[in-house]
Amino acid sequence: MNKALHPLLLSMACSLSGIARADDYNQLPPPTLGQAESKAYTLYLTLSVNGNKNPELVPVSVNNDHFLVGAAVLRKNYLKFPATSGLVDVTQLPGVHATYDSARQQLDLRVPDAWLPEQFLGNRRRQKELVPVTSHGVLLNYDAYSLKSGSGTATTSTLLEGRFFSDEGTLSQSGVWRTTWQGNDNTPQGYMRYDTSWKYSDVNRLISVQAGDFISDSLTWSNSVRMAGLRISRNFSVRPDLVTYPLLNWSGSAAVPGTVNLFVNGYKTSSQSVNAGPYTLTDVPFINGAGEATVVTTDALGRQVSTTIPFYVSNKLLARGMSDFDLSAGVLRRNYGTKSNDYGEGAFSGIYRYGLTNRLTGSVHSEASEKLWLAGTGADFTPGQWGTLSLSVSHSQYDSLQYGQQYTSGWSYYGRLWSLNLQHINTRGTYLDLSDDSNDAVSSRSSDQATFSITPIGQAAGTFGLGYFAIRAQDGTRTRLANASWSHAIGRSASFSLSLNKTLSSHALTGVAQLTIPWGDQSTVNATANQNANGKVTGQIGYTRAAPVEGGLGWTVAHSFSKENYNQANLTWINRYSTVSGGFYGDDSNVNQWIEASGSLIAMDNDYFLSRPINDAFIVADTDGYPDTVVRYENRRVGVTDKQGHLLIPWVSGWYAGKVSIDTMNLPADIDAPVPEKRVAVREDSGAIVHFPVMRVRSAILTLTNDRGQPLPVGTPLNELDSGQSAVVGYDGQAWLSHLGRQNRLVITTPDGECHYSFTLPQETRIPATIGPIECHFPSVKEPLNDR
């Protein structure tokens, strides 16, 4: 054997011998610490609190199995201990268990769940931070209806509503102009004013102030009245994301990080990640009535804990601590719709509701005028899972001579399979309120109402309903009515319904049976059979094609199988500027012809717009005068901007934060829209200009080479001094720059030095200008900027 191999073989033999004598280790043994080092030393570890890991490294002092961590670090990780500074021995803290995980270089801490912060799980977007906007403008809504009856009378009634809106609120007036063109008509002629008012809403306080004509608010056991004066009220509509009634509230605690899934009535409604510690579900669907919720918690190892609870949610209640009110003062409005300016005596009406708890809401109500005084109180509460109970009592005094009381009680329950609603109203003496004060009528002595609906076996048998209504007048006469109904879905889209009504004091029985069959996307076929109180049965069949919302034609034709041979036909055309419809209806002896046109006229942003009727709010998209730009609202295409760069969006809901966007894909290369999308909430009954900056820019494609004509390396940086832009060289030595001026100065930085270059662009670059090739050479003495 070659002697040169002897040392190698001897080394291998010694190694094998050592391995054979050693224990089986899969890693090197830990180093041996000296006696002093084993008592106190410092490790840099990550912290894990109940499984919630903090990735930051923190110094941990170790002394005889005691772990000392900085007080500030522990407070940051939700550990509680007496106020102190410096190092804290976590092994001595009551309720804390500390373990050192050498494999992960981690200090695991287990603390009481109550120490960890409560987590609110939910992704419902809150609109509170989004301030609703409005712009200055004027709007006029019109609806002109002309009718020529079979008797020869021809009339036209034009409903007009004008609005002036700004940041200070909305001033509006409505009325109708009536004209009789032919024949005799007893209705008043000329202009009849309806309402004139100014309204402003404070989105921070959720309060609306209204001056002029208005309708006061009411409770379930009071009445509204028309007044003119000042009204201050709560307005929850300014926050569409706000839920005023108490929703399903579920709180729990997770031992380790995991996932929480919520199932309501068997349907999965949310899934959220959760850290260890207490949590509260806030992303609960808007539900009403009885149901069953199941919360499933899953940890990282797939272990699940399921909890099922029944619940009852009532939208009649206010959440705890929430209040609602309406204070109206002024004069009573009389003969509304027949006289423009008929006002009575001074009056006041006020209501106030407050959520005492999530199960109890209290309310008070008061009314007053020159002769009337009224006060009452009520409560709504949920007794467990058994629905909502409502009670109220009120007292009135009229002209210091007539006294009366009103007592109301009600109970409602809404479940998945059945629902029941009961209400009883009873008055004693002469009970009057402001709605009675304007005429000689008085409230009935008692009123009872009961409705019941049930879906016994899901949708297979349909839904059955029963109703009972009874009213006893002050003279003791009673009116009682009972009804029964049944509705059932046929297939996926058709439906059948049957309704019977009977006055219990007579043998009269009326009923309606209806079959509805969708016919395509826009059309519906209806077949109806009616029985009147005399027992006569008539039938009607009709076909309706709804006009598309984005514009188009729609029509309705109907025929009644009766002795009079009733017929109906009408045509509707919806376009961008108005809605026009017309037709006829009647029998063989009396045919009525009609035509109607409705729309809006708007003056805003130095422009005029014609539109279909605008019932609430609207938006004008502005693209800085750039035409033919596609505009979308909530991802739905609305149209393209006109020559002034404007497009009107007429179907916006007030206070709702909708997304308005423009399509930049079809814009030319020299057009830039830096903000193509905005989310905007518009105040009710007003309009807002949503501005999208659209600008024309100059662009250039640069080709850069070295002095040998070779492309500069990929990634070579360059700067344009005048615009402050930076870019890098790509493949083939090319770079792209935009937002350039007429005169431009480049600085290209390479390992060999800086290269300077200046170039001039034309007034417009419909397509990016091609500059180059730009040769970069690096003389020993820097040259001044040169134009090439």
From TrEMBL:
- The question of whether Signal is a record keyword is answered with yes
InterPro entries in the record, alphabetically? Fimb_usher, FimD_plug_dom, PapC-like_C, PapC-like_C_sf
Q: Which Pfam families does the record associate with it?
A: PapC_C (PF13953), Usher (PF00577)
Q: Signal sequence: where? A: 1-22
- Outline the extent of the PapC-like C-terminal domain: 701-763
Q: Print the keywords alphabetically.
A: Signal
Q: Does the keyword Signal apply?
A: yes
What PANTHER family does UniProt report for this protein, alphabetically? OUTER MEMBRANE USHER PROTEIN, SLR0019 PROTEIN
User: What name is this protein filed under?
Assistant: Fimbria/pilus outer membrane usher protein
Organism for this UniProt entry: Tatumella terrea
